[in-house]
Structure formats: structure tokens, C-alpha cells
Design goal:
The complex is a heterodimer of chains A (81) and B (165).
Chain A (H helix, E strand, L loop, with lengths): L6 H12 L5 H28 L5 H8 L1 H15 L1
Helix pairs in contact in A: 2-3, 2-4
Chain B lengths: L4 H16 L6 H17 L7 H21 L12 H5 L3 H22 L8 H20 L7 H8 L9
Helix pairs in contact in B: 1-2, 3-5, 3-6, 5-6
Classes of the chains: A mainly alpha (81), B mainly alpha (165).
């Protein structure tokens, strides 16, 4: 959870604040979906840097992180399966 | 996706010119930043991606394609690529193009093995394709440094990208 709090702490806080019960299998789905979207954003950023004259170097940096993103995606998809 | 070397260097120079140098107030630092541009201008025509990792990437992809095609021989053939002789003499740019062509062929094989026309030992082919992609990503990670996004964000106060005109 971006080193802000543990997964369990997030679940407990969310449940306490919303009154909703969190189903871990549903969380796994949204985690995989969110990671997929993030991977697409990384790819899009790198593509825009290459082809659309965006010179924000963070976008080129995102392109270099694609292997990390895709391995994370594989991992969360396996967890969600 | 890897950005091309030419585009990366052009982007670095443009960022230095447009966003960094105008905001450097120390004269010596400003001169050094212009010196970086001068060096990049001279390094650029002498640079290419390292050949060994590209040759390895091509070899790994060819090996995977060959093994998968042995399991699903009825899968549509891919576009013709470099011969072994041409590969041995290929430049980095040619190797990168061959790597990208093979990635396209592997993508087509993945799509075919999940489509209605799939036949043969599809389960084994799918497992092999998955293992290949995982192994390639793991190999790429050996060249990938931890991102500095957190440091960049802290330095810019989480600043947004400039709008492009």
C-alpha cells in the first residue's frame, strides 16, 4: 500500500469508515484491474514521449519501468485468479 | 516500450533548453548544463543500444517461437525475419527491429492460441509462451534501475506535466 499502511490496516480502516465488509477476492480483482490500468498508462506515456513531442522526462522514465509493471501485473493477476 | 535512443537524447536536450537552463540562476551551473547539451550533441551520433542484450533478446525470442511452433504447427506463419547470417552481421538498430518483429510474432501466437482456430498442444504452447514472457521481463529487470519517481515528485511538489503547445 505504497508503504503508507499495511494491507490489513487499510482493510480495517476502510471497513470502519464505510461500514462495508471487504471481500479479499474482490480486492484482488480491483488490484489487478488497477495495475493493468497503470501498465497501460506507462505504455501510453512512453508512446507519447516517442511520437508526440512531449519532453517530460518522467514519461520516458515510465517506459523503462514497463518490465517491472508487467511483472507486477502478472503477480496480481495470479493472485486474483 | 523502449524509447529510441535518438528520441531520448532529443528529449533530454529539449528539457534542458526549455525547462532547466532558463531556471538555473547560478552562472557556473548554467554553463555546466549547456555543457551537458554540447556533450549530448557530440555523443548522439556515436551511440547505439548495446548489441549483446539485443542479440540475446533475439535469440531467446527465436528459441521460444521455434518451440511453440513445434507444439502448434498449424499456427499461421510469421513475417520473414533476418537469416542467421544476417543476424550475426546485424547492427543494433537491425537487431532491435528483429526483436520487435519477433515480439509481434509472439503476440500473434498468443492471440491464436486463445482463439477458436487453436489446435495442437495448445496448453503446452500457452504455458511456454507465458514462461517466455515472464523470463524476458525478468531478464529486462536486470537492466532496470529502481525508478526515482518519488524523488522527482518530492522535488516538484507533485507538479504536473507542462501543457504541450
Amino acid at each position: 500500500m505504497c508503504h503508507l499502511l499495511t494491507r490489513e490496516e487499510l482493510k480495517n480502516k476502510y471497513e470502519a469508515l464505510t461500514g462495508a465488509t471487504v471481500d479479499p477476492s474482490v480486492v484482488h480483482y480491483w488490484e489487478a484491474f488497477g495495475t493493468f490500468k497503470l501498465a497501460v498508462m506507462h505504455l501510453g506515456a512512453s508512446f507519447c514521449f516517442e511520437t508526440r513531442d512531449f519532453n517530460d522526462l518522467r514519461m520516458a522514465g515510465m517506459g523503462f519501468q514497463m518490465p517491472r509493471m508487467l511483472l507486477q501485473l502478472e503477480s496480481v493477476m495470479e493472485r486474483a485468479a | 516500450m523502449n524509447n529510441s535512443l535518438e528520441r531520448l537524447i532529443a528529449g533530454i536536450i529539449a528539457t534542458l533548453r526549455a525547462d532547466v537552463i532558463p531556471n538555473v540562476t547560478d552562472a557556473y551551473a548554467r554553463g555546466q548544463a549547456i555543457g551537458v547539451i554540447d556533450l549530448l550533441n557530440n555523443i548522439a551520433p556515436r551511440l547505439e543500444w548495446a548489441r549483446a542484450p539485443l542479440a540475446e533478446a533475439v535469440a531467446q525470442r527465436r528459441s521460444a517461437v521455434r518451440a511453440v511452433r513445434a507444439l502448434v504447427p498449424q499456427a499461421p506463419a510469421g513475417a520473414a525475419g533476418l537469416t542467421d547470417q544476417a543476424t550475426a552481421a546485424a547492427s543494433s538498430a537491425e537487431l532491435a527491429a528483429e526483436r520487435d518483429r519477433l515480439d509481434g510474432e509472439i503476440s500473434d501466437l498468443i492471440a491464436w492460441t486463445h482463439g477458436p482456430a487453436a489446435c495442437g498442444d495448445v496448453a503446452a504452447a500457452t504455458a511456454l509462451l507465458r514462461l517466455h514472457v515472464h523470463d524476458e521481463l525478468t531478464r529486462d529487470m536486470k537492466l532496470t534501475k529502481k525508478p526515482l519517481f518519488a524523488e522527482i515528485s518530492k522535488a516538484t511538489g507533485g507538479g504536473q506535466a507542462k501543457s504541450q503547445s
